[in-house]
Amino acid sequence: MAAFNLSQTGGIAHLQFCNPQKSNAMGADFWSDFQPAIHELSQSGRTRALVISAQGKYFCAGMDISMFASGIPTTDTATTREAFPPFIKHLQDTLSCLETARFPVIAAIQGACIGGGLDLAAACDMRIATTDAYFRVEETNIGMMADLGSLQRLPKLMPEGVVRELAYLGSTLTAERGHAVGFINKVEANADAAQQAALQAAERIAAKAPLAIAGTKAAITYARDHSTLDALNHARMTQTLIWKPEDIQRAVMARAKKEKAVFDDLGPVRT
User: Fold this and answer.
1) pLDDT means per 10 residues in the chain (271 residues)?
2) CA dist., res. 73 & res. 13, Å (int)
3) Residue 25 contacts by C-beta under 8 Å, 6 or more apart in sequence?
4) Are residues 215 and 85 in the same domain?
5) What is the reported pTM?
6) Residue range(s) defining the domain that contains residue 52
7) What is the number of domains present in the chain?
């Protein structure tokens, strides 16, 4: 069964998890299909924003336990230890593709967003949640360390002390507290309202010059992981690469005439 549906209207793509009977847990189909789908959206240059939502009561309950139907992987020999890091890297890369995509990604989250679901949400650019949404670093509750991005990204999205509390205690972060500490951008009453708010934000992004948005995302992500001086150097080079007077003129003229500017898509990436 497919893990998600993917549609596109104009420059806005919408990926919706469609396995509510399993709380949209991440099974084999997700881990095989998700990264290629995001990669294709990014490579084409036609996508200007992506919304990720979910059917049913829960956004994502994390890794599907069916992934371990043949047993929990072991690292009790040199051979199995050597092969384990590439396995984890594949899982990490599957979620990190959201961060490296050329467009912003907005998650509309309801109900449970735990374990791998939280890893995914942390890799998005923005998060809009329902009042009943909740987040948890579930791994420590089941005897393991989280290793797919939460422990690396969350300290840059909310106070470190809060992250340590969540990771050490395995406690639950409510949408209200998540908004208060800066992890959640906006809280809505229900899933429909959260999805609508995410799509409206995507529409606003899609109306702007794609080169400006792509450069802005790259600059923010780079600045997060580098010194201010390095980030300023990166910004100079990025601006030199994407500077497009035509887009500036279109934006200024459209604003003056109170019209909607029309911009070219990003170019496709050759492979």
Assistant:
1) 94 98 96 97 98 98 82 88 94 98 98 98 98 97 95 98 98 98 98 98 98 98 97 96 96 95 95 73
2) 35
3) 19, 60, 61, 62, 63, 64, 65
4) no
5) 0.95
6) 4-206
7) 2
